[in-house]
Amino acid sequence: MSGEADFTEIDENGERVLRFSGRLTVARLGDVPVRLEELGIAPDRADISAVERIDTIGAWILHRLERDYGTEIAGASDHAKQLLHHVSCADEPQPARLDDRNLVVRTVERVGAATIEALSSLKGLLAFFGGLMIATGSVIRHPRRLRLNAVVQRFETVGLAALGIVGLMSFLIGIVIAQQGAVQLRQFGAEVFTINLLGRITMRELGILMTAIMVAGRSGSAFAAQLGSMKLAEEVDAMRTIGIPPMEALVLPRVLATTLMLPLLGFYAAIMMIMGGGLLCWYELGIPPATFISRIREVVPMTDLWVGLIKAPVFGFIIGLTGCYFGMQVEGNNEQVGLKTTAAVVQAIFLVIVLDAFFAIFFSSIGWI
Amino acid sequence: MSDEPIISIRDLKNAFGDQVVHEGLDLDVRQGEILGVVGGSGTGKSVLMRSIIGLQEPVAGEISILGERIDMATAEENLDLRRRWGVLFQNGALFSTLTVAENVQVPLREFYKYLDEQLLNEIATYKVVMTGLPADAAPKYPSELSGGMRKRAGLARALALDPILLFLDEPTAGLDPIGAAAFDELIAELKEALGLTVFLITHDLDTLYTICDRIAVIADKKVIATGTIEELLATDHPWIQEYFNGPRGRAAVAAQG
To answer: What is the ipTM of this complex?
Structure first.
C-alpha cells in the first residue's frame, strides 16, 4: 500500500511514456526527482493514473516535466488536476537568496562595503558624540532632568559589581609581573628593581588599561545588548514618542557611569596589582612588606598616579560611548544584537589602545617620564 | 471516513501551578473542516493549541490526532505526526536570520534530505507565490516585509510539508480589514485546493462568519458549545449571546447580508 513513488519508461505506439506509480508525495519521492533530471530524451506523456496519492511537491515534479519537456500529463484525478493547476499558477522562478554573483566581484564588494562601514561607523560615532554633548549641555542647564537613580544604578552595575573580578584579575597580574621581573632582573643582580618595575607600570599603564579592557568586555557589551534589544522591541521609539530623549535617559547615565567608575576601578586595580606583586616579592625575594611599601613610595612619582587618573575617565567615556552607539545602531533582526555587541567591544578596546599610545607620547613629551 | 474526527480531545486538564486553565475539556475536529476557536482573553485558546501540538504538557486527559494518542506516541511517531501538520504562530515566528525562501526550506531540509538545491528553491518559491506573496519576496528577510506579508510567509512555511492539518493562531490579528478579508479568502482557497483541515483561533467575527464551518467556544475552562453560528445563537449562554449579539457581532452579520 504505502508504496514509494516510482516510474517506468515504456514505448507506446512510438511515444515515450512515463508511467508513475506509488505515492507522489514529499515523504515518498525517493530518487524520483534525480532520475527525472537524468532523463536523456523528452518524454511525450506522463501517465499518473496509477498514482495512489499526490501532494503539491509531487505536482510540482510533474509540472516541471510539463514545463521543461512539454510532456503531456495524462490520467490525472480531479484532485491532481487541481494541484497541478495551483502549482503552475505559482511558478515564478526566484532564487532563495540574492547573492549569486561571482567570487571576485563579491570579494571586491565585501572589501568596499567593509571600508565604507568602518568609515561610516567612525563618522556615526562622532555624530553620536555630538548628540551626547548636546544632551549633556541641556542636562547641565536643567539639572533636574538628570536621572540620578539611573546613574546610581549604573554605578552599581559598572563599578561595584566589577570589584571582585577586577580585583582578582589585577592581583594575579601583579604576581605575574613581579615574578617575571624578578627572574629577568636577577640575572644582573638587580632584583630589587622589581619594585620599580611593578610600581611604575601598574600606576601608569596596566592598572587602567587592564581595567578598561575588563569594563569594555563587561559593561560595554552589556550596554550594546541592552540598548539593542530595547531598540528591536521599539522601546526606544516609545520613549521618543512619550517625550523622553533616549540620549538623556539611556545613554547619558551609562556613559557617566563608565566615565566616573573607570578612574576608581583603575586605581583600585593598580593597588591590587601592587599588593599581588608585593606578596611575591616577600615570598620570592624576601623583601618584607614594610620595606616594599617604603620603596614603592620612593620610586613611584606622583605624576605616575596623575597619568593613570587622567587617562581613566577618557577611556571610560570611550567605552560607554561605543557601547551605547552600537546598541543604538541595531536594526532589523536579533542577529544584529550579537553583531553590534561584538563590534562595540572590539571598537572600544581598539580605541582605548590607540588613545593609550597617544597619551604615552603626550605625557613623555611634557616631561612626566 | 470523514466522520472520524482528525483531532479528538477528551477530559483535558491544563494548569500552571495552582492556576487551572482547562478542566474537563472535550473537543473534536472533523476532517476537512475549518474549526474556529473563540473565547475571551485568557481563556486558554493558545494553551489549547499548544497542548495539541505538543508544546504544552497537559496535566491530565487524552489528545488523539489522526487516531494516535500523542501522549502515548514514541518520539519517532511524534516526529512523524509533526510532519503532517503546519503551524502559523501569532507573529509568524519566522527565523529572522533566514530569508523567506530559506524559512520555507527549513522543514523540507530537516525531514527530506534528498531534495536537491534547485528543487528546494523551486518549491520554496511556489509556496511563497501560492500564499499570495510576490515572488520577489522570497529572497527577502522577514524584517523587510510588512506585518501582513510576514503572516503569509509564515503560512508558506506552515504549508512547506504539505500538511493535512493546519493550526492558525489569530491569523488576521493586526491586519487591516482588506488584508484580513484577503487572508480569510486565502485560507478558504488553500483549504479547498489542498484538502486541509484547519484549527483556527480567532477573535475576528468576520473570519468566523465567512470561512468557519464550525465554531468552538471556550469559557469556564472547557468548550461550552460547538456548532455553526446558527446553532450557537440558539444556545442561551450569556457569553455566547454577548459575543455574537454585541455591536460588533451584529455588524458582522450585517456585513454578511
So the answer is: 0.72
